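Person: Please work through this fold.
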Amino acid sequence: MAIVAPSLLAANFINLQAECDMLNKSVADWYHLDVMDGRFVPNISFGPMLIDFFRKATTKVCDVHLMIENPENYAEAFSNAGADHLTVHIEACTHLHRNLQQIKSLGMKAGVAINPHTPVSLLNDVLHDIDIVCIMSVNPGFGGQSFIPHSLTKIRDLRQLITDRSLPTLIEVDGGVTLENAAQIVEAGADVLVAGSSVFKSVDPIATIAALSKL
């Protein structure tokens, strides 16, 4: 069964407590929390203050995805805010191995996200240090985009690398995940489905989450 991580970026922020209450009643496994700085991606979202709110609003895993430059400057703040996972972008990290060591030293699981143009082979030398690889199946920065079909090939390639090394690394897929394509994504080798608009804009978000979790 897939791990479902609804992306709060697509939630109704005027009614955020109600959105959290809905997720808490659902079978969603993780809260996926996108942090954007307006520099690494052309959008600004939220920072540690809201992570702290989500941490207090749920007992579910807080899966924090940093789409920011110089993530090492903020890792401790997100740890203090209650992040369980901290994912950084390979494209934003000059010293990725050092970033991973820092995240783990702060008591969080370490994730690495890769953009659509980035080959999974670049993770070869650090894959054994990564708890979660987040394959971006859209260009990061905005919700509601369409899934990039080539992402399926990247998921398969990464799954083979993980299997060949008998690693426990999870594959997370973020961007354009819907009920229509989720089965294909899981079949390709994904463990975690990040779903934003397809959950929060559905007629029955709890039922949508349940359907995704059964894949």
Summary: The CA atoms of residues 132 and 155 lie 13 Å apart. The two ends are 5 Å apart (CA to CA). The chain is about 35% helix and 20% strand. Residues 151-164 form the longest helix (14 residues).
